[in-house]
Batch of 3 targets.
Target 1
Amino acid sequence: MKKIIFLLVVFSLVACGKRGPLVPPESLVPAAIKDLKVDQKGSRFLVCWSPPAKMESGGKLAGIAGFRVFRREVLPPDQDCEDCPTAYHLLRTVDPEYLQDVQRAGSHYCFYDSEVKTGDTYQYKVFTVDADGVSSRDSNKVRRMKIASQPPPNLSALSIPTGVVLQWDPVRVAPGSTLQGYAVYREQEGGVMPLFPTASLPADSNSYEDKQMEHGVKYVYGVRSVVRTGSDTAESELSNLVEGMFLLKE
């Protein structure tokens, strides 16, 4: 009898072989997104994030099937319930192969959320879905209140031997708001204006000289005023567009 028990123990050890460390199931999902960001530009929110490159375990992420962006309206403290099942609703499903109104800006995916109301506060989060349909944990959560959009500057352009100078009059903002500065946007003629500014200037600026131009290429410029209301900062709508070109003097 003792011999039989001994043989069974030996057989079980051989059959099992060498086992590695156990991997928790929760680590076999895409790593959570940590750089979700929401900015107000004019009357819209710009929602941006970059995709994870790894699994929660640290291993390489084989593929991404898409992203799911959720939004909830933040209610007064006595009514708010973030953990309630109906708090968040699916705002956008993003397929990397068919972006539609979603844009790529470097490594970031971005889209405009136009369905926001002045004075209301919203909270966002995003999930990554891998090629097997497995979803990541919550991203970082971003909360923003939409503030009243302030006026953009009135822009003009002047060509000089070294490039182009943009000029504008100081913007007057509404009482209770503070002018923080200006954001300059630039794109080659026929292109799409970028989502992020080429240059950010302080509030006492009323001009910008662009020296980073290619000879003979026409550029289109726009400027947004940057205003703080309470603890929130927002850019205005884009100003009127002006053109400029750098031509070498012979």
Target 2
Amino acid sequence: MRPKNLSSRRGRTSAGFTLVELLVVIAIIGSLVGLLLPAVQAAREAARLSSCQNNLKQIGVALQLHHDAKLRLPPGSSRDQIPFGSAPITASGWGGSSCFAHLLPYLEETALYAKWDFRESADHISPGYATGVVLPWARCPSSDMPQWRTYDTTKIAILSYYPVAGAANGLITSPAFTETRSGGGAGGGAIVGWGGMLFPSAKMGLKNCTDGTSKMLAFGEQSSMLTDTSGVLQAWSPGSRFGWPLGAAAVTNGVGNVYNVTTIRWPINQKTGWDGVTNGVGPGGAGWPNNVPLNSNHRGGTNLVMLDGAVRFVVDAMSLQTLGQLATRDDGAATVDF
């Protein structure tokens, strides 16, 4: 005979979770989310790192194609004078074209290249043909820099990658190497070098790199905000406030008023302590940012592209000695593997 209260007891048993059971379930779910979230974030950053490296690979291939077509590399920065433009070498004027302006046809930007005006009198500070143009290969997806820089109401893309002109003297100490091919920039304590392969007004061929193309730095990543001495985040890059199209004004031996090219001087990812008016790190005007350190938001290092087109990830701890060797075409020392 069934007890009269059996069904009522079963009803009470299957009514649902108790408060304690619910709290336990929530705690378990929270723990699982806590375990999975870092893995998801790491996977996303790995995808962004790969995308950044693909960008640099495109730039490295474009560099090789330019060399094949013209039997020389593009200048790191230039005036629009022969052989980089149509103006005679004796012409005077302001502005020239950046390295990327010369690489446009090899980066699937033929329409933009067709509009480019390689004349000494051309306005590359705020050119209408570059206004609002998105360059998909030019921005690291991990970058926290603003996408645009506005100058005279003109919106110009901010790049994440810049050609390397050379290295400052004093970086290569063992064995000692004196770099005589560097000097003061136009202001702000900047140093501009021409001991690399993509220096201002360069007309270099691959044969000029006696250390070997696999050991020669061509482009470096500069895709992260810097912090000034007041603790303020700053979007300082070699393009200064003029954006990516501008090249160089008066240049003697690679030194002078040059933009969109960098010279190695500081450690990788040195992001703090800049006063904005010295050491070649700043907004432009008071200080020309020719020595902004290689930097990124990738964990532990940054990406580079070598002269042979290979893309490498290098760690923050890389010594200035090694970095200086990679930026110098003929120091003659065996660069350690990296």
Target 3
Amino acid sequence: MIKHGFLIGAPTSGSGKTTIARGLMALFTLKGYRVQPFKCGPDYIDTKFHAAVCGRPSINLDTFMASDDHVRELYDSYGKDADVCVVEGMMGLFDGYDRDKGSSAEVARVLDVPVVLVVDAKSAAYSMAPLIQGFLNFRHDVRVSGVIFNRVGSSRHFAMLEQVCEDLGVECYGYLPKNASLEQGSRYLGLDFSEKAESGLLVQLLENNVKWQRLLAL
């Protein structure tokens, strides 16, 4: 299996995983890394955005329509010459067609890749602790390596969220601040990368506020 790669998941849809996944793909690519994108499930729209950002085709990984072995073969084949593989999850991390069957968590288990959990922290601080703890402990064969917080209101807000991660013993990879320009530029399927100013702002915010080098080392 590819040694450098991770899956971006979230507790629920609308948490910001699509925006952060595409932003990280763009950031890594701008830094000169060969990024191989993947998408959980049969979604064909997100894959087009991935391809536009990374300059190489994004591949669907779907354990409902394909066997575990086939999913692993796709990951290995398309990712073999990449510096990092980024898998964008779908819906909530454990949402599948039958409980967690076919979910992003199942893809992470099949590939044995760590999960980076994107958590929408708007209007909450230490209440994030029981939420994140639940995802850390729900299944021990799904490795949540750390958290990126989305829609953080201030440096004080982020400091409180860092305390959550410290108390839980999970790494905090950083945050994406609440920004009206990004929210206005989003669509129902995520950030519209046809808006160059918005995508450039996103990349800058992630570079400044996320430990992206740590993500590359996963």
